[in-house]
Design a protein that fits this description.
5-stranded antiparallel beta sheet, 73 residues, 1 helix, globular, 27% strand, 14% helix
């Protein structure tokens, strides 16, 4: 992913999703920059990507999905 384009999320559990933060260059993200939401989009920590609704829709529709990568190559 180049600069701030695109985002990545990962299913931590059945209820929690880890997101790359909004507006941050991916090459410089630190662990403490990551955001966590629940499947309803309620932020538990951090500032999740603006594309979280799309990611959450995928997780809700596909129980087997463990990660979503949205790239702008």
């Amino acid at each position: 992913l180049a600069g701030t384009d695109g985002n990545v999320s990962y299913r931590l559990s059945n209820e929690e999703i880890l997101f790359t933060p909004s507006g941050r260059q991916k090459a410089f993200i630190r662990e403490e920059d990551m955001a966590v939401t629940d499947l309803n989009g309620q932020t538990r920590s951090g500032n999740p990507s603006g594309e979280q609704a799309m990611h959450l829709h995928i997780y809700r529709k596909c129980d087997q999905a463990r990660a979503v990568i949205h790239a702008h190559p």
